[in-house]
């Protein structure tokens, strides 16, 4: 899977997760279609997709035995690193520690990990 395809998979899993877990109506930016997603966000999504895929590869897929919380934490940490890469002074919400994230975002991040896992089967 190319980085562009991986980025798109990440974005689609994000949108699906937001629609499933977000309480109420999500902000429009949370569910922006791929075609309208900013380039920095596409790059970040592709990088995080690749990091999850490599993590699974390096563990001979045994990382699939992580708990949902561990999967979510991994995605969130990778995303935070991308925010520091793309922004000199990222918004605090972009780089918040996993424990400070809302539950809907934690669940969505776990869903992203599992979507990437499923795509490797």
Describe this structure in words.
This protein is mostly helical. The chain has helices at 3-21, 39-58, 68-86, 103-119. It has one domain. Helix content is 62%, strand content 0%. The model has no long low-confidence stretch (mean pLDDT 96).
Total number of helices: 4
- Return the average pLDDT rounded to an integer: 96
Note the run of SSEs as H and E: HHHH
N-to-C span = 12 Å
What is the percent of helical residues?
A: 55-70%
Protein name: TipAS antibiotic-recognition domain-containing protein
Notable characteristics:
121 residues; mainly alpha; 4 helices; TipAS antibiotic-recognition domain-containing protein
What's the topology here?
Blueprint: H1 3-21, H2 39-58, H3 68-86, H4 103-119
Helix pairs in contact: 1-2, 1-4, 2-3, 3-4
In short:
The chain is an all-alpha fold.
